[in-house]
Amino acid sequence: MNIKDLYINFFKSKGHVQIPSAPVVPENDPSVLFNTAGMQPLIPYLMGEPHPSGTRLCDYQKCIRLTDLDSVGDKTHHTFFEMLGNWSLGDYFKKESIAYSYEFLTKVLHIPQNRLAITVFKGEENIPRDEESATIWKSLGISEKHIAYLGIHDNFWAAGSIGPCGTDTEIFYWRSEEEVPEVFNPEDERWVEIWNNVFMEFNRLEDGTIEPLPHKNVDTGMGYERIVSVVENVNDNYASSVWKPIIACIEKVAQKPYQGNETEMRIIADHIRTSVFIAADNVGIRPSNTDQGYILRRLIRRAIRYAKKLGIDLESNWDEQIACTIMDQYETYYQEIKDNRQTVLQVLKDEKNKFAHTLEKGLKEFDKVIEKTQQIDGQTAFHLYDTYGFPIELTVELAKEKNIPVDEKGFQEKMHEHQEKSRTASKGKFKGGLAGNGEIETKYHTATHLLNAALKQVLGIDTHQRGSNITEERMRFDFNCDHKLSEEEKRKVEDLVNKWILEDLPVTKTQMTKQEALSMGAEAMFIEKYPDIVNVYQIGDVSKEICGGPHVTHTKELGKFKITKEEASSAGIRRIKAVLEHTP
Ligand code: SER
Fold first, then answer.
1. Which fold has domain 439-581?
2. Is the peptide bond before 550 cis (omega within 30 degrees of 0)?
């Protein structure tokens, strides 16, 4: 049986409720482009809000970590991964959490106990040493010599600079043919981390101080790809059953063996897989020059470049074959992969058609330039971007292979001149860290529901939200619509939202089953994401939406709503940017 199923069944047998994976794009956290951990969609509940599915939860969550993008090509890195997670929201704490992890690893996956080693928090910065966890591990039979005490850097976990956090205990596995050492040395890379149990009992505030959360939580995360490679005893992640069919397909389309072509094949496998998951997400990300769309573009274009390097005929349907192999593997786990199969193939094909022929010309241009000069200046990098569609990262990578520098700053300046507005809007997003559910964001969140309702009244009931993004400065809202909004339509939408704000409508929250919510006509954006019991936010009688919140309690708090921009987002999708003015 697949380890995902074993994991979910195990935690269900311990009273946990399985919750569906959230989309790869966080719904209301503008500070990160993608979910990077299983806990991210659960932040409001770790902070104290009751979760509709109870206090014991488990799932597998689609995650994307871009920090690993440049390392892809080696044996271990990939940009997309699934994180197996279980949570206690103020329910059990260290004792049960550690015992569950131990039982799953040794009894379900049959990992020999002596191949496991543990780190616990040694005590630092006024947070006490975690003797409790060490004692629990020893009571289960872990040798004292296989327990290491480490500091804040290793055994304290937080998703960002603010928000829920806590000390953790990490479980390591001895991945080597050599005999297991008697004493655990966490510096020895043959010990690989497989599971992280975080005891989330604190909230870190903006000024860096730490306060206790309303209740003590457990947040655990185990990387699926890694645990599979451990259980299957392979020392190249890409040789495990997760990647084998994908690599085999690439061998077939390239008519070359994996051996000797590992780097290229791993990059293609990883990048196409991540692109499939981004494009399949119901939020509707398409290749573009900003935000998530830019990442999608970069990944597809980099895969195309490596496919060319491998000698794959770019005109053939190689991309389709690889994507289908990937989707065959995941569609039983992710409904959106099943539903959006054709869309994914179309996205890949369109991007390939855009890039494949300019790649050839661009590479020639690149070679011509470096014959003459020993560096790529900003203007040239921008020319490669603008005329041949080379993401700057591609130019940098090509230049690195020839050992020549690129004036990236000069490129950014050219870029800035070219499209000042859209860049400034997206830049902050690459910084990472956690968004506040601050007062202003909360207001924008409620305004999003009003805008959604107003668009339906003005443009028709088939108008639905396709994406949203909130910062302290503005809201952005994507929706399906086949035309540019007229001035009159925009004014009508604005007027409606402002009318509802002035009516000071009450905002109420009700818990109900997903079925009840849908049959009462509640607006739902990401059907696949919702658990069986959901929160429905109602605003007077103008809006009903399934939503995690938070929201204001009365609409008058919003101030004045103003549309600042209406533009195309992608085919059939329009985008509105709006602000709230004079908020009291
Ligand atoms: N949040 C922790 C991690 O990502 C445990 O799930 O490692």
1. Threonyl-tRNA Synthetase; Chain A, domain 2 (3.30.980)
2. yes
